[in-house]
Every structure is written in C-alpha cells, then in structure tokens.
User: Which sequence fits this backbone?
C-alpha cells in the first residue's frame, strides 16, 4: 500500500515539473563568416554539379540500352539512379539559392532550368514513349 501511495505522490510532483511554458526559447540564427559562406556555396555547387554530370551521362547510356528489349532491367536500374541524382541535384540547388545574391540566383536558375528541362524531356519520353 505504501508503494502505491509513493508512486501516486511522485506522479503529482512530476506533473508540476513537466508544465510546458507558453513560449519556448527560439534557436539563435547561425551567421556564417564570409569564408564559411563561400565554402558552403562551393561545396553545394560541386555536389550539385556531380549529380548533374551523372544525369548527363546516364541519359545517353539509357537511350542506348533502350534499343534492345533484353536490357529492360538495366534500363529500370539506371532510370532509378537518374531519378535519385535528379532529386539530389534539385535539393542541392534549392539549398544553394538562398545563399546567393539576386543576380547570381538568376544565373544559377537559368543554367539549372536547362538541365531540368533536358532531364524532364527524357523522363517524359521514357514513361510516355
């Protein structure tokens, strides 16, 4: 009986300790130094370009494989890889843009939109063609 009373009393104490305040402290915004910002921009661009280059190599390879029916499994496998590189490149591009000045954002968007169009056109021909 004493154990039950002790547990009951402990749960009453814990309720008052676990009250959540109305306003939680917010995280402080991390400000990068100029050098760190440039490093991050360069890393994101390099990673994005790696994925873009893989996309550019996969598309002609898939087109070649599609000429023969017995390559269907390889086509599926490489198409899946293409989609993964596409998603990664897009994610990196979206992470990169807010770090750039407006004029650079426009240049990067123009360049990247041509890559996306090339990839989307190919994906459309594979799935609908």
Assistant:
């Amino acid at each position: 009986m004493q154990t039950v009373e002790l547990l009951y009393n402990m749960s009453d104490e814990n309720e008052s300790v676990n009250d959540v305040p109305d306003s939680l402290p917010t995280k402080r915004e991390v400000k990068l130094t100029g050098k760190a910002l440039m490093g991050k921009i360069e890393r994101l661009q390099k990673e994005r370009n790696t994925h873009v280059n893989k996309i550019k190599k996969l598309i002609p390879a898939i087109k070649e494989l599609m000429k023969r029916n017995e390559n269907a499994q390889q086509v599926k496998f490489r198409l899946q890889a293409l989609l993964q590189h596409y998603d990664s490149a897009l994610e990196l591009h979206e992470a990169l843009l807010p770090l750039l000045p407006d004029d650079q954002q426009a240049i990067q968007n123009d360049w990247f939109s041509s890559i996306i169009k090339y990839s989307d056109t190919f994906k459309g021909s594979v799935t609908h063609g």
Residues 1-17 have pLDDT under 50 and may be disordered. The helical segments are 2-17, 34-65, 72-96, 102-128.
